[in-house]
Design brief:
With about 400 residues, this protein is an all-alpha fold. The protein has helices at about 1-10, 10-35, 40-55, 75-80, 90-115, 125-135, 140-145, 150-165, 170-185, 190-195, 200-215, 220, 225-240, 250-260, 270-285, 300-310, 310-315, 325-340, 345-360, 365, 370-375, 380-400. The longest helix has 28 residues, at about 90-115.
Length: about 400
């Protein structure tokens, strides 16, 4: 932490980034208030569900704030929001907005700082790097601030798990991983990775904390009512899911839309299984074959965050979860700005191509019809896969350049 604070204080570019981002976000907050667009719909769901859990009211199966505002998270996930229910909603939502804003700013800086610790990456163009990373994620930042979800916090916690794992603080890393799973079971994608890395203590501590988290609401609701809540949570998750081949931004939906449908073929469970198998083989190839001659511990950053970035391509989730490609975007931008790369213009063109559906899909910019085209036609999912491919290609190229791994 001391090294990071010194890095921050000694960096005019980082300080300008903090000031500019803060001013823009505060202006946006005021404009939302003026135009009555500060509903913070997802935070409303957490807030009302926490209040219902505390008061003994119905938690699942009812609308909170908006028609789509069903609470579909674990009973445990509402517990951290209970203290905020002591405040009027207008005050609580305002505090939450600035908490999200603060998290965005700090994590942007932490990511750049962490990647710059590699001897292969300099900080000469740090200001440009922060600008391009923020522009690439601007729509996702704006959505998170507008709807008030927890995606940025889960990404930060997953980063902490990564740091703790590399520092061999396995017990705490496992507890945090279990906490993440209680909010988004999608992060189970990391389970095989931890198993492959033989992090058995992490897995055990995560499962133990996950079990404790499932039982903890019983202190408020009693044993039998808590079991009913867990059953309702499972039903809420089932209701939110759709057939994977009909989820447009998953690899199954992309394959179905762009390959099977033009050929007048119908998707099936076999197709999904085959695509999962192919994806698993590609991940194994990435983790094993490409790293066979280099120190494995030096590659965990890319391995780890590639798996997290793939979550919305492998499971049916909301489009906001595509912001989890953030660490790979930061890595790509820093490499392109600071290193001599073969085919650099091609990689830049690929990122520009991905930028349009990934970031310029705001109804305020392109209109609602075009936004729906990006979000519901598979283009957003394709853009995410392009970003991942660029990040991995750049990473492998710069590592092989002098047979020296990135220190991330």
């Amino acid at each position: 932490m001391r090294k990071f604070m010194k890095w921050l204080n000694d960096s005019p570019a980082a300080m300008r980034y903090v000031m500019a981002t803060s001013v823009i976000a505060m202006v946006y907050f005021v404009l939302q208030k003026m135009h009555h667009r500060d509903g913070v719909a997802d935070f409303r769901v957490y807030y009302d569900a926490a209040k219902a859990l505390w008061n003994g009211s119905q938690v699942y199966g009812i609308h909170f704030g908006v028609d789509s505002g069903f609470y579909k998270y674990s009973p445990f996930a509402a517990l951290p929001f209970i203290p905020l229910t002591l405040l009027p909603y207008s005050i609580a939502s305002g505090l939450y907005y600035f908490f999200v804003l603060f998290s965005f700013i700090i994590f942007s800086l932490v990511l750049v700082y962490h990647i710059e610790q590699s001897p292969r990456i300099s900080g000469k163009k740090r200001g440009w790097a922060l600008l391009f990373i923020t522009l690439f994620l601007a729509d996702h930042f704006e959505r998170e601030l507008h709807i008030g979800n927890v995606n940025v916090f889960l990404l930060i916690l997953s980063f902490l798990v990564f740091l703790l794992m590399t520092e061999r603080k396995i017990l705490i890393a496992g507890i945090l991983y279990g906490f993440i799973l209680l909010y988004k079971p999608h992060f189970i994608i990391l389970f095989p990775y931890f198993f492959w890395r033989r992090e058995y203590k992490l897995i055990v501590s995560a499962m133990l904390f996950f079990g404790v988290g499932l039982l903890l609401p019983a202190l408020l609701k009693g044993w039998y009512q808590n079991m009913e809540l867990l059953g309702q949570w499972i039903e809420a998750m089932r209701a939110h899911n759709v057939r994977l081949d009909q989820s447009p931004n998953t690899i199954y939906g992309i394959y179905n839309r762009f390959i099977l449908s033009p050929l007048n073929f119908e998707s099936s469970a076999v197709v999904i299984i085959v695509l999962l198998a192919v994806t698993a083989l590609l991940i194994v190839w990435m983790l094993v074959y490409n790293h066979r001659n280099l120190p494995k511990e030096k590659y965990r950053f890319t391995e780890y965050f590639t798996l997290i970035a793939l979550i919305p391509n492998l499971t049916h989730t909301d489009t906001e979860h595509f912001m989890w490609t953030w660490p790979l975007i930061a890595l790509s931008v820093l490499i392109l700005l600071n290193e001599k790369i073969r085919g650099k213009n091609i990689f830049i063109a690929m990122l520009i191509l991905a930028f349009v559906p990934y970031c310029v899909n705001s109804p305020d910019i392109v209109g609602r019809r075009m936004m729906l085209l990006f979000d519901e036609s598979g283009l957003l999912g394709l853009a995410n896969l392009i970003i991942i491919a660029v990040a991995l290609s750049l990473f492998y190229q710069i590592t092989a350049k002098k047979n020296q791994p990135l220190q991330t």
